[in-house]
Every structure is written in structure tokens, then in C-alpha cells.
Amino acid sequence: MEEKKSLGKYIQNKRKNLGMTQKELAAQLFVSESAVSKWERGLSYPDMTLVSPLCEALHISEHELFTASDDWRQRQIEEQARRYKRNKTIWLCVTCIIYAAMLFGTLTWGITTGNGLTTFAYTFGACALLFSLIDVPMLAENDKGVKCFAASFASLLLLEIIARIVSPTNDPHWLWMALPGTALGLLSVFLPIILAYADWDFPFMRHKAAFCLGVDSALIGLLVIFGQFFYGDGHPAVPIASTASMLALIWGVFIVAHYTCWPVPFKISAGLTIGAAFCLFTNALIEALEGYGFRVVFNANRSNSGNIAPDIGLILLAAAAVLAIIQVIILKRRPRP
């Protein structure tokens, strides 16, 4: 009985605070005025089908109705959420007005000075970059880091494309170097961070490090290929082969360290072996591509003019063999369970 009276008193107070009569509340809920009167006098409960409409009419939550008390904490949270949405809308409107004013101003100034297209294009690219850095973080509801990075990355590429179109230079091919160069500089730093916090259900998410290294390798390869295609002379295969051998060294060490289940000494030995192969055969491969034949020449007399990479390769190979032998001896002497 006390619960009914408490609920009825709460409904009555909320109705009066809104300046609403029992008849008006009953009309909104499609019930009789006497039903509302019985609720407020604690003679009956509202039907369960009327809970949501009653809460909406009294501007309260269902939790507040059931407890017959105001949930000030929840109201504060909801008010903060409404205030944030309102401030976000105001901020976006203000920034969009600023962008529009910048574009209109530069277009007008450019037309009067005869340089409208160039100025407007650069201003448009700058506004796109500002939008990606200032507004996208407020618009993104989830995966903010990914969306902000993607937007800023696209804006930088757009600026480079705009520069190539509206400001031609004596070098018509620089854009082909700038695009993968920008991508390499940004992705090599931010892609591992993004993948570390991303919760995506993609197969490559089980191999994040390999995916990042693959992206970097592909971009480095594009840079070298474009560089040789547009600016190279002599033997274009030489820098491509040198880059490929360096990437093979990195990938070999990465696979051994990341995907093998060997003991650490065996991993170190395998890494030294891969490094030895790089030192022994890379220079020979380059000389073969230059037309001198494939040959491994050791600098036995340690002359300053000689190539000591093969000698270093032998040292690494010997160190790998010694380390592997020591580990095998240790494993053989270890008592078996």
C-alpha cells in the first residue's frame, strides 16, 4: 500500500510540475480521468502497457517511475550527452562556415588577381586537411583513430595531386614518387599503432606484424621501381635487385624470429646464416647484372679498395655454425625426462 501511495505521489508531483491536469494526462494515455486519479491516490498501479507512454508524458525514465524517485545521476549523464551533441553541432557549423568563407574569399581574390584556380585549389586541399584533423574526430563515433588517419592521409594525397595539376613543374614525374613516399612515411609509423588497437575480424589480423612489413615492403618496392623507371640510368635491374636482396634479408630474419619455434640460439644461428648469405652473394648478383659474371671474391689481403662483404659473410657463417654446434651439444647432454 505504501508503495502505491509513493508511486501515486510521484506521478502527481511530476504531472503538476509540468502544469498538466489529470484530464490532459488521461487524454495522452487514452485512459479515463478516474484511472489517473486512482494512480495518484495509491489505489491502483498503471497497466504495464502504459509504462512507456506514461514515462514519455511525464518526461521521466522507466527506472525513475519504478523507484518513484528522480535519478539525478542519470539525468546529469543525459544532460551532458545532450550538451555534447549540441556543442558538437555548433562546432561543426562554425568550422564549415569558416571553410566556406575561406573558399569564397580565396576564389573572389583569385578571380580579381587572375590566379583564381590555383589559389582556390590549394585552399580546398588545406580545408580538407583541416577538416580531417579537426572535424572528423568529432564526427566519428567509433574507430576514431582509423577514420582520422584515413581522412588525413587522403587529404595529404589530395594536396599532392592538386599541386601536380595546378602547379606544373619541370619534373612531370614527381607525383609518382611523392604518393608512395607519403604513404610509406605515414603507414610505417601509424599502421602498427592502428592494428594494435583495432578489433577487426580479418584473417590478416592474426599476422599484424607480417602485414605491416608487407605493406612497407610493397611501398619501398614501388619507390625503387618508379625511381628507376622515371629517373634511372645505366642498369635499372641493379638497384631493384639490391632492394630485393635487402628485403629478402629482412623477411628472412623476421620469419625466423617470428614464426619458428626453435630455441633462441638456433634462431640466432639461422639469422646469422641469412645475413651471411646476403653478404656473400648480393655483391656477386649485382656484378652479374652489370655483366661481370657471378663470382664471390674474398678480400684476403684486407686492402682498402677491396669488398670485404664476402669476408664478413664467412665470419657470420662460422659464428652461426659454432652457435648451432654448441646448442646441439647442450641439447644432447641435457637429461631427458
UniProtKB/TrEMBL annotation:
Assigned keywords, A-Z: DNA-binding, Membrane, Transmembrane, Transmembrane helix
Gene3D superfamilies: lambda repressor-like DNA-binding domains (1.10.260.40)
An example Gene Ontology molecular-function term: DNA binding
Ranges of residues in domain HTH cro/C1-type: 11-65
Family matches, as InterPro entries: Cro/C1-type_HTH, Lambda_DNA-bd_dom_sf
Domain of life from the UniProt record: Bacteria
Keyword Protein biosynthesis: no
Coiled coil stretches, renumbered: none
Membrane spanning stretches: 90-111, 117-136, 148-167, 173-198, 210-231, 237-256, 268-286, 312-331
Pfam families from the UniProt entry: HTH_3
Record-linked PROSITE patterns: HTH_CROC1 (PS50943)
Keyword set includes Transmembrane: yes
The protein's name: Helix-turn-helix transcriptional regulator
